[in-house]
Amino acid sequence: MKLPSLDYARPATLNEAIAILAAQGGDAKAIAGGQSLMPMLAFRLAAPKLLVDIGRLPGLNRIDVSEDGVDLGALVTWRMIERDARLAQAHPLLAAAIAHVAHYQVRNRGTVGGSLAHADPAAEMPGIAVTCDALLTVVGLNGMRIVPAAAFFRGGLETVLAPDELIVNVRLPPWRRARRWGFAEFGRRRGDFAMAGVAVYYDLDVQGDIGDAHVGVIGVADRPVRLKDVEGILNGQRPSVDLIRQAADVARGAVDPSDDIHAEGAYRRELVGVLLERVLATAGNIKIPEAAWHL
Ligand SMILES: Cc1cc2nc3c(=O)[nH]c(=O)nc-3n(C[C@H](O)[C@H](O)[C@H](O)COP(=O)(O)OP(=O)(O)OC[C@H]3O[C@@H](n4cnc5c(N)ncnc54)[C@H](O)[C@@H]3O)c2cc1C
Predict the structure, then answer these.
(1) Which residues pair with 31 in a beta bridge?
(2) CA of 267 to the centre of ligand 1 (A)
(3) Distance separating alpha carbons of residues 139 and 62, to the nearest angstrom
(4) CB 251 within 8 A of CB 272
(5) Of 14, 69, 164, 250, which cross-links 22 as Cys (Cβ 3.0–4.6 Å)?
(6) CA 57 to the chain's CA centroid
(7) Separation CA 108–CA 96 (nearest Å)
(8) Does the structure show a pLDDT above 50 at 295?
(9) What's the angle, vertex CA 82, arms to CA 81 and CA 86, rounded to 5?
(10) Cβ(274) to ligand 1 under 6 A?
């Protein structure tokens, strides 16, 4: 389908971009990789009068790894994450989850900032941001603010961003080396959005008990969510088959996905249980009888 008629601007600096967005009072939209916005325009799900191309703003395509964590500039693409060998150690959960995003062409252009701002409930990056307590740096006409990922998403395709605000950076807190983790998702084909996905990490204390468990899910609510009840079941316990089964049961009860054209809610709920069993088995290096994974 042809795009609606619109104007186009390509500011050279962040301040210029923000000033242009602010001057349009909600009638302009930033475009980064265009991998979500272009389809939205083509399907008339978005109809801004002006596109503000932020794709070449300087300084926003850096991946920094330091003792403060991993910083991803808003214009970092999936491909850049995939190619950065440091991340396998600095944040293996991020690297594993992002490996599931889309196809080669989309991965070359789609950006971290665009994914967070687009706020698809089944997208991997928002899920990782929420699971890992990421901090988003957002800049607008009134200056800069830091927004915790958990407070950033307001619903499907809805965030707390004001029309003049741009995401410039996302920081993932430091990753402990011995941390246990797992990520799994289920989609109909490789590169498709997940019907459901689960991300988990925890640390083990000297007794071998789980602490600081983080469990996040995508594709089963209007935004990525943490399963705090499941985290409560895991914390203070030693990883075991029984614990994994118990956690999976609690997870099934903790989500209430609605039916849509891709799957019934009950199917997605079951997926969450099965995927959680798988990632906890991976994280704990525990073998679970395959028969438990009846999809
Ligand atoms: C065929 C296909 C398959 C896909 N599969 C997946 C998948 O499996 N998983 C997945 O996560 N994604 C998937 N995507 C989406 C893809 O990852 C997009 O790249 C991403 O969601 C948006 O990034 P973008 O840079 O292209 O954003 P754009 O399309 O340019 O913009 C998206 C939205 O974000 C806003 N925006 C962009 N950058 C900023 C910023 N810095 N600050 C504030 N607002 C901003 C725009 O105004 C717009 O509203 C798929 C896309 C396609 C076309």
Answers:
(1) 53
(2) 27
(3) 17
(4) yes
(5) 164
(6) 23
(7) 17
(8) no
(9) 70
(10) no
